[in-house]
From TrEMBL:
Keywords: Oxidoreductase. This is Pyridoxamine 5'-phosphate oxidase. GO terms for molecular function: coenzyme F420 binding; oxidoreductase activity, acting on the CH-CH group of donors. One of its GO terms (cellular component) is cytosol. Gene3D superfamilies: Electron Transport, Fmn-binding Protein, Chain A. It comes from the Bacteria. Residues 1-22 are annotated as: Disordered. Signal peptide: none annotated. Residues 29-129 form the Pyridoxamine 5'-phosphate oxidase N-terminal domain. InterPro entries: F420H2_bilvrd_red/Heme_oxyg, Pyridox_Oxase_N, Split_barrel_FMN-bd.
Amino acid sequence: MSDTAGTEPVTELDARFSSDGATPTGWIQARDQLENAEIYWLSTVRPDGRPHVTPLLSVWLDGALYFCTGSEERKAKNLARNPYCVLTTGRNALGEGLDLVVEGEATKVSDHARLQLVADMYESKYGSDWHFDVRDGAFHGEGSKALVYEVVPVVVFGFGKGDEFSQTRWRF
């Protein structure tokens, strides 16, 4: 899979938040986790400035995360007003794993070919319960319509945990 810019991102270790002797986490490891994670948390901003956070499913494709939501759901309404968002994933444990924070701008996807590819990836990753038909610039499944969003990372933070703690930043 390619990354967001077609080249490797700039990788930096923040020694202030890392164990002595820690090394930056490699982008390939972070990207693999973005591809293989099952649950992601989306953070958006409500019209009155309060945060909104919700779990969702996502797929990584060609250097971006894709997710879907109904047009009347809070996250879609928030993104219509302010497309900047954060997607996180990781392991809910202190002694192991890698937590990732992806910052970017959510862009609505309407291209039929791209939507079909994302729909196929959803079903491949999550199973037949997540089958979507693509028409009219959206996903359709079991009587509902879902908008699809693409988030191309601008910056990703990785928090390595376990015997060695590290904070890595990848800039695109």
